[in-house]
Amino acid sequence: MHRTPRSGCPINTAVEVLGDPWAMLVLRDVMFGNRRYFRELLLGSEEGIASNILSSRLKQLTAAGLLTREDAHRGQRAMYSLTEAGIQVLPIMVQCRSVKASVLVSAVS
């Protein structure tokens, strides 16, 4: 399901794609957790993502062009990989990791 962004602003577009916490966590696990398969992403999630949410986010990230899904043949599993656009999100993820947790906790409180 591909939606048209609310505006032409690149920040708005990024927020619409990356603003969902589960989407960011799925990308994190693909980037830094070396998880490429549905089962690895599901069982390796520290946050305990539900299978229906994971399935939905994988479809959204694939539709947004951040992940590719290599279709599985009979008896094989589908593999997810970062696209060039997904790789371009890496610096954002690195910046998110570098922010101290104490700063973020106080900002949300």
TrEMBL record:
Keywords: DNA-binding, Transcription, Transcription regulation. The keyword Transcription regulation applies. Residues 9-108 form the HTH hxlR-type domain. InterPro entries: HTH_HxlR, WH-like_DNA-bd_sf, WH_DNA-bd_sf. Transmembrane segments: none annotated. Pfam families: HxlR. It comes from the Bacteria. GO terms for molecular function: DNA binding. This is Transcriptional regulator.
